[in-house]
Design a protein that fits this description.
Spore Coat Polysaccharide Biosynthesis Protein SpsA, Chain A, 12 helices, alpha/beta, three-stranded mixed beta sheet, CBS-domain, 3 domains, seven-stranded mixed beta sheet
Amino acid sequence: MEDIQKLIGRDTMTVSEAMKEINENDRGILFLTDQEGKLCGSITDGDIRRFLLKGGKLDEGVMAAANRNPKTARSLKQAAKLFHNRDYVVIPVVDPQGIIIDLYSQDGRTLPVRPNLNIPVVINAGGRGTRLDPYTRVLPKPLIPVGDIPIIELIMKEYQTYHCNDFHIIVNYKKELMKAYFLDRDKDYNITWHDEEEPLGTGGGLSLLKGQLHETFFFTNCDSLMTADYEEMIAFHRQNRNLITMVCARRDMVVPYGIVEMGENGSILEMKEKPTISFFTNSGFYIVEPEVIDEIDDNTSIGFPEIIEQQRKKGKRVAVYPVAENDWMDMGQISELEKMRSRLYGSKQSL
């Protein structure tokens, strides 16, 4: 019953609250009931994403984004029949041509076979990683291990599951250590190194790739791991003909104080005790068209968000692709590094 309750929410909650419940139940769906307990809808992380992309807000009522006619059954037997007739550990799902598109596992979860995107990946790995001091006095941030594997290699392995094997890595601080680490792994990764002579910020290093990329590419910082659906991101980027797509992750922040809204003559309009603020934050993960590189000045330090703002002011199509909080793991600071380690390896694995 406890597990069932994790999948049930009230129809009076907000989209933000529903998103949080979906993250916590780890099943990607929430069933919505009215005050009498009757089923009145369902909502998935995909429903929420589509709602937000159409201009919906996190503080709106959840029913504005919900499916009001979810599939139902009258009994467990009927539900099992609707779901599947299962006598196997794993059932392959194929398209009309016989190509496997999903694997259905015994616990009722789907294990998608990831498509062959074959898109170049640019990783900005040149920063000093001052927020991870003192670790970065010894190692460059990309080589700090999460469990047994450096963060940059975890990021690269995630791209490889989509058959993205063409890596361009921008380096500066302790770059020789970076290259030495991958020297024995040349057979596993196709890497082109781009050396900064001076720090060029989170965007300026792209100028080193002028004339080398001629197609859409992924661009990412070296301290975050994204586990959302890359194929859906690329489809969104291309369908909307974006020049740049910024992937933003939802975050909840609890304000550790009571918040007071003050009116005229010091009157109190509203008080909230330790409210939770929900917002979308830049994950440092982008999809970019190659023409952006050509417009970056050589040997000039600039942040990539500043480049995005420049393109936006020119009237170019730049957009946000929202993902759930659990789709993004950030190791930009020591506390977040520990959270990433725990999620990937469990509480028994030490850093």
